[in-house]
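[agent] plan:
  1. take the single chain provided in the ticket
  2. run structure prediction with default settings
  3. attach structure tokens to the ticket
  4. add a short note for the reviewer (M.T.)
[agent] executing step 1
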Amino acid sequence: MRHKMYRYKIGTSAAHRRSLLRNLTVEMIEHGKIKTTLGKCRALKSFLEKMVTFAREDSIHHRRLASSRLGNNKGAVKRLFENVAPKYKGRSGGYTRIVKVPDGRVGDGAPMAYISFVE
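[agent] step 2 finished; step 3 output follows
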């Protein structure tokens, strides 16, 4: 039984989902705000907030955990620990915000949203 085992599946395989979340997280760390589908935003939110929680405590162990989850992207890990996480030292969660876009994507009408870091 898989009671209370919910995960955003995004209609992909597990490997593709991991890769997608990794790439979206790197883009968020680099740009601070991205536009994607609402389902991907909701899946990204929990993954990204766990990464910021790791980065709030700057230790070699947390850097290695972040590096393994970001696919050994050294630039993104460095930016996460030096630029993003220090802003949220005193905050206990809720580092991101999702804002829905009123119109769907052109072509298939998928609901779109912006995800950004809270200031």
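[agent] step 4 note for reviewer: The beta strands are 33-37, 96-100, 112-117.
[agent] ticket updated
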